[in-house]
Amino acid sequence: MTHQETLQKIVEVFTEPSVDYSQLSKAIEQLRALYLNLSKVDLNNDENRKDIHSSNGKAIGTTWAALCVDDMVRTKKFISGVYQAVQKLLGEHPEKNVHILYAGTGPFATLVSPLTAIFSSDQLQFTFLELNSESYQKVQQVVQQLGIGNYVRRIVQCDATTYQIPVDEQVDILLSETMQYALKGEQQVPIIYNLLPQIDNEVILIPEVIELQLAGVNAAQNESRMMNGSEEPYYHILGSFFKLDIASVRAFYAKQKHLPVNHKFLDRNFRIPEVVQTDYPELYVFTRLCVYQNIEILPYESGLTIPYKLADLNGKRKRTTQMQVAYALGENPGIRFSFS
Ligand SMILES: C[S@@+](CC[C@H](N)C(=O)[O-])C[C@H]1O[C@@H](n2cnc3c(N)ncnc32)[C@H](O)[C@@H]1O
Asked: Do 185 and 286 share a domain, yes or no?
């Protein structure tokens, strides 16, 4: 079987609307083996395990970026989302040459390489941005080995938080998965805040919406959900305090010219109701992740949507009724919170 035939079979599994875990796990294994074989990334090399730290947060090392492929539902749903977005654009304009700007490709350009098995280079073009020099070299090798150079306009080693898109270039899809759960530590937000405002035309952002929500959790009910599939509600959403989507970025720049490096987004004040104090006393941040349209990654389906624990109201905080929560950028981007 050629590499493209293997990729085609894998894409068929990824673009199925439902998730068949045994098929999916085989497809992921095949994809990982193919990428590792083509790139010869040494997962055990200490240098490849080093993250790069900057004033905007970290960029994960080549080994960790390579291993992202193993986050099965993430990989499936992102590739499926990009596929649907390309299909939509081609459906509206069949002669279109869809251009994807992919920030943070890792060593494999994992989220788009398989699509070359089903779209032609007349239909699909890429620009790849990658900060890490090993990942940058490896992604070039993968492109060359797969023979997909005709899809790639350019591969740039750069910091996507400051990269300038060439003037007059149309970008149809802006894609980045440079995040962890609760948008901790990595650079998704400054990357999108840098690239999106440079795109004047209508653009599809993938993921389309990332929203951070404060929730109270009932640990016992969560455990029985995991152990025996109980459908009793295990969390109570208090509300959202940060959203990354096209509208929120555009609204920000309508009021402000620049995004300061250490910017703290608006604090949201939450009143903690009695029901949370008594029935859902563990406070978590849930990451709502809509990849594209109806493709959502649900809590616990992926490493990106594991709820992040902030505090436990059992015991000493029992009388706490107000909480302030915000998302902040900087060397260690993440959640800032306090009680009052
Ligand atoms: C979480 S990995 C994801 C890799 C791949 N896109 C995937 O989905 O499997 C994020 C990648 O983005 C790169 N990255 C992080 N911050 C970056 C930045 N500011 N500019 C360019 N690349 C960045 C990292 O080096 C890493 O390779």
From this structure: no
Q: Among 178, 208, 238, which residue terminates a domain?
A: 208
User: Ligand 1 pocket, 187 CB below 6 A?
Assistant: yes
Helix-strand-coil split of the chain, %, nearest 5: 40, 25, 35
Whole-number Å distance between alpha carbons of 113 and 156? 16
Question: What is the reported pLDDT for 319?
Answer: 67
> What's the domain range around 326?
211-339
**pLDDT tens per residue, range 245-285:** 999 999 999 999 999 999 999 999 999 999 999 999 999 99
What is the pTM (predicted TM-score) of this model? 0.97
Q: How confident is the model at residue 203 (pLDDT cuts 50, 70, 90)?
A: very high
SS3 299: coil
Centre of ligand 1 to C-alpha 264, Å, is 23
Q: How far is the CA of 136 from the centre of ligand 1 (A)?
A: 10
Give SS3 for 218.
coil
